[in-house]
Amino acid sequence: GHDASQAGHDKPLRGIMAGLLKKTTGLVGLAVSHNPHDRLRVLYTKILASLQSIPQDAAYRRYTEQVISQRFDLVKSEPDVEKLEKKINSGQIEEVILQAENELSLSRKMLEWKPWEPLVEEAPANQWKWPI
After folding, report:
1. Distance of CA 129 to the CA centre of its chain
2. Could you report the per-residue pLDDT of 47-99, keeping only the tens digit for each?
3. Percent of the chain having pLDDT more than 70?
4. Centroid of chain to Cα 87
5. In angstroms, rounded to a whole number, what is the distance separating the alpha carbons of residues 47 and 62?
6. End-to-end Cα, the chain, rounded Å
7. Cys-Cys with 95: which of 91, 100, 101, 111 at CB 3.0–4.6 Å?
């Protein structure tokens, strides 16, 4: 029917309105995030979940968990994006999101690499001896 063709027509307008609020991040290729809190909550939850698979004494996990937990608390407690940017102190909220995305993919790579595990093979005993 006729209504279906009308359904999609309110979208562009919403986009234009949002664009007027914050035109650009000033960073090339980085789109303005319209719901940064939601995005960060999802990313931080995923990162923390990913870290659960990493041994607790691994330095990477300890450090990352600390940083992400701190930021997550700020996201949960500070609804104002500009104030949140100041508190996290890591650039614009879009940059913070980008960092979180990078951190998430790194935490997943860490699970593949397992840098905290010893070498699988023992080095041959005489490998480091000077040739006689």
Report:
1. 46
2. 999 999 999 999 999 999 999 999 999 999 999 999 999 999 999 999 999 99
3. 67
4. 17
5. 13
6. 90
7. 91
Upper half-sphere CA count for residue 51 (Cβ side, 13 Å): 22
Residues constituting the chain: 132
Rg (CA), the chain: 22
Query: Phi/psi zone of residue 3: left (φ > 0), alpha (ψ -120 to 50 degrees), beta?
Result: alpha
Dihedrals φ, ψ of 89, to 5°? 55, 45
**Residue 43 CB partners (closer than 8 Å, separation 6+):** 97, 100, 101, 103, 104
Query: What are the E-state strand segments in the chain?
Result: none
Contact 98, 30 (CB under 8 A): yes
Residue type, 46: K
Number of Cβ atoms within 10 Å of the Cβ of 101: 14
